[in-house]
Design a protein that fits this description.
The chain is α+β, with helices and mostly antiparallel strands. The protein contains 4 helices and 6 strands. Helices cover 24% and strands 40% of the residues. Strand 2 and strand 3 form a beta hairpin.
Length: 135
């Protein structure tokens, strides 16, 4: 079934703890992941917690990429939500798995905005225009 977007929910395990606690590195990696996925970066914000851990989001024109890290456990929770046919969240996944040095992961892919549930014909190349009125 066609959908407006794809949402990867990822758990990376056994990651490099130093990387997971480095807010600059995490932001750089998340921005690069967005570029690898062929998305358009709008903005990003990241925060390092005390005593450790990083949370952040890269807002892309096609939705967002977010991360929350627990360096003390070598664990990162990542969401890659992309819309459009030209963006591939799996390319961002591959890049992040590599740079975080994850030895194992768990991933679930959800279809967001399924055409049938919204009422968009499967054959449609639905693209909202300025003529669409949102109520």
């Amino acid at each position: 079934m066609k959908s407006l977007g794809r949402h990867l929910l990822i758990e990376f395990y056994d990651c490099n703890s130093k990387t997971l606690d480095d807010v600059v590195a995490i932001e750089d990696h998340m921005r690069m992941a967005a570029r690898k996925a062929n998305s358009t970066i709008v903005n990003s914000t990241f925060h390092r917690f005390s005593p450790y851990g990083v949370s952040g989001v890269v807002v892309i024109a096609e939705s967002h990429l977010s991360i929350h890290t627990w360096p003390e456990y070598g664990y990162a929770a990542v969401d890659l939500f992309t819309c459009g046919e030209s963006v591939d969240p799996w390319k961002a996944f591959d890049y992040l798995k590599d740079v975080l040095k994850s030895s194992r992961e768990s991933t679930m892919e959800l279809k967001r905005g399924e055409y049938g549930k919204i009422g968009i014909p499967e054959s449609s190349k639905f693209k909202p225009t300025e003529d669409v009125q949102i109520v």
